[in-house]
Amino acid sequence: MDEEMREAPRPQAVQPPTFKAPKMVSRPKPPVQQEEELGAEPKLGDFEGEHALSISEARAVVTAIHTKRRQMEPGSNPLGGDRVHNDSQSIQQFVDYLDMFARYKQTENLHSMGGIFDSNPQINPVERAMLGSLCPDTADEAKTLIPSLATKFEDDQLQPILDELQKLQDRFG
Fold this sequence. Notes:
Blueprint: H1 2-7, E1 36-38, E2 42-44, H2 55-70, H3 89-101, H4 107-118, H5 125-134, H6 139-145, H7 155-168
Antiparallel strand pairs: 1-2
Helix pairs in contact: 2-3, 4-7
C-alpha cells in the first residue's frame, strides 16, 4: 500500500487565473486644454459665460424646486404616478449640504446681498458668487481668495461692502 501511494500522481497546486486587460477599442482622446484660473481676470474654461451662483443662491433655487415637486399631483408628475417627487438619498444629501453651508438663508438677506452687488457693477457674477460663498472678513482676505478684486478695489473701498455682507449673514441657522 505504501508503494501505491508513492507512485500515485500528486495533485498539483491550482494557479489562479491571471487578469488580462482588454485591448483598447478606440484611440485615447487627447485631453482638451482649457484655461481655468483665478488671476487678475477669472478664466473659467467651459463655464465661461455661465451664470454663477453662491451656495446660498443655489440653496434657494434647489429648495424652491424641491418643495414645488413635493406639492405636485401624482398624476401630473413626470417621475411617474407613484412617485410624488424625487427624494433619493443623493438629492437629500445635496439639500442637506446646501443647508449646512449657506450663509444667507432668509430670502430678504439674499435680495439685500444682490442689492449690494448691484450697486457695485465692477463686481462680476463669478466674484459675486465667490464673495457670497466664501464670506471673507477683511479686504485683504477677499483679495487673497479672489485675486481679480485686487485690480478693481482698494482696501478702503472693499471693506464696507464686506461689512454689509457680514451683517446679512445668518450665523446660527
